[in-house]
Specification:
It comes from Corallococcus macrosporus. By secondary structure, the chain is of the alpha+beta class. The protein has 8 helices and 20 strands. Helix content is about 25%, strand content about 35%. The structure holds adenosine-5'-triphosphate (ATP).
Length: about 375
């Protein structure tokens, strides 16, 4: 079993605290993605789990064993880095074998493991090449191979696809998830790319400033962000967030005044009174141009034609922007005045503290 447990884990560099007490339980065979903006501490936390950084406080355990003081090599983990970290003077095969040789694994065993990993990753034809004779994608496969041959209980990935071009990233994303399933290991994957987080994770952990903002499945995080930070960070394009006032509260429902009309949201508004300031959030795919009544009116200032659909950036009189979705062959032109409506049943409300109000809908936002 390779559960990973973090209990009130802290990190200080001198007087600067960068991880403020993170508690998290990662289950055996889970694919967990740490995501958050640059500098939020996700790499530091991963490096502490790996044993490459000292823990300043709290406890880390892997497979039921406290590892705070266990050297990296004895933790049953293998790490894959963004910059591959291969030895330039060694062949791919030697790079993959290096760690095993160091711990005295018998030659025949090393050869068998390298051959098996090479087959899994389809890199058999690269085994005699040096890193300089390979593309970025091929080098990353070798780095992943080096991790696999160690048969770790836990794989740690630190932005492993960031140096690859867009098409290769998509392909490697799929391959890494398949590999994770085949190897039956626990994986922790750090990225600042929320598309990677959405597409790869069993559960996502969203960080900000050394603290966890939310933990959940990709759909939980997407549909029910816990606060305005997560709402604005996850999703491409991100969730629209508009200042609004509460018009009326009834059981299980809140009516809010938006610049061009009123919207009803299935939320528990017992903590609110009429006139209170709230933030109204709605995903662009639930906002459509209409020739009838809407909740927002403004000018199309930017139009993104994506083929399958068109994104309209509509700016209201007070400067607020709402991104809406129209058909691929949208007739809206730059500068047109557009009225927008929200699909019934969608929308999420956040209180003055930025925290989401409990949704009363079967499926939120
Ligand atoms: N060795 C160090 N000494 C001092 N401060 C550090 C050190 N390493 C990291 N930090 C600080 O800790 C914070 C978290 O850094 P970390 O690299 O973990 O962030 P991150 O979320 O992984 O960011 P990125 O996506 O840019 O890599 C940052 O403010 C960074 O400046």
């Amino acid at each position: 079993m390779a559960d990973v447990l973090l209990r009130d884990v802290r990190k200080q560099y001198g007087s600067q605290a960068v991880i403020h007490g993170v508690s998290l339980e990662l289950r055996h065979r889970e694919f967990i993605v740490f995501v958050g903006p640059s500098g939020c501490g996700k790499s530091t936390l991963l490096r502490m789990i790996a044993g490459l950084e000292q823990v300043s406080g709290g406890e880390i355990s892997i497979g039921g064993r406290r590892v705070n003081d266990t050297p990296a090599g004895d933790r049953g983990i293998a790490m894959v880095f963004q910059n591959y970290a291969l030895y330039p003077h060694m062949t791919a095969a030697d790079n993959m074998a290096f760690g095993l040789r160091n711990v005295g694994t018998p030659r025949a065993e090393i050869d068998a493991r390298v051959a098996a990993a090479a087959k899994t990753l389809q890199i058999e034809h690269l085994l005699n090449r040096r890193p300089s004779q390979m593309s970025g994608g091929q080098r990353q496969r070798i780095a992943i191979g080096r991790a696999i041959v160690r048969r770790p209980d836990v794989f740690l990935f630190d932005e492993p696809l960031s140096n690859l071009d867009a098409a290769l990233r998509v392909q490697m994303r799929v391959e890494l998830v398949q590999l994770h399933q085949r190897l039956e290991a626990t994986s922790i994957y750090v990225t600042h790319d929320q598309v990677e987080a959405m597409t790869m994770a069993d559960r996502i952990v969203v960080f900000r400033d050394g603290r966890i903002e939310q933990v959940g499945t990709p759909l939980e995080i997407y549909r029910s962000p816990a606060n305005t930070f997560v709402a604005g960070f996850m999703g491409a394009p991100k969730m629209n967030l508009l200042d609004a006032r509460v018009a009326a509260v009834s059981p299980g429902q809140v009516e809010v005044a938006l610049p061009g009309g009123q919207a009803r949201i299935a939320a528990d508004g017992r903590a609110l009174t009429a006139g209170a300031s709230v933030t109204f959030g709605v995903r662009p795919e639930h906002v459509r141009p209409t020739s009838g009544e809407g909740v927002f009116r403004g000018q199309a200032r930017a139009i993104e034609r994506l083929g399958r659909e068109t994104l309209l950036h509509v700016v209201g009189a007070d400067g607020a922007t709402l991104i809406a979705t129209d058909a691929g062959d949208s007739a809206v032109r730059l500068g047109d005045t557009v009225t927008l409506a929200i699909e019934p049943g969608h929308g999420r409300l956040f209180g003055a503290d930025g925290m989401a109000l409990p949704s009363t809908a079967a499926s939120a936002a």
